[in-house]
Write a structure and sequence with these properties.
alpha+beta; 2 domains; four-stranded antiparallel β-sheet; two-stranded antiparallel sheet; elongated
Amino acid sequence: MPKLLDITGQRFGRLVVIERSHTKDRRWWWRCLCDCGRETITAGKYLRRGETRSCGCFAIDDKRARNITHGYTVYRQRKGKAYGRWAGMFSRCYNPKVERGIEVCERWHRFEHFLADMGEPPPGMSLDRIDPDGDYTPENCRWAMAHTQVHDRRKR
């Protein structure tokens, strides 16, 4: 067993070590209190190396900070249908396994521009291209019902 290096009371990122918890896999594990108020148990090795800096709230806060542009994220609990339609449009166009030859206009590479141009889809409607051979652009897209889209399919 390695020699115990007592780190009780020391701060590592957002964590303050409260007490030694147990040993496992020849490592000392420590009970820590996070600045957010939650407790976590982690190996001292990870604390000293800087691999563990919080109870997990740091990663969540970091994701929140990166996703505040349009507010349509899981973390802000506002899941708009437009975001799903936008993401689906990209997966259809840029899936390397499927060659379609359809592209998304440069402006719509940012979700907030797509949302400004198209708005939220009305209930029961999805994104439709007016010209099925054309790209996804504000001039060529609309919200349409499924029965309308059936008639607008591309020739195979």
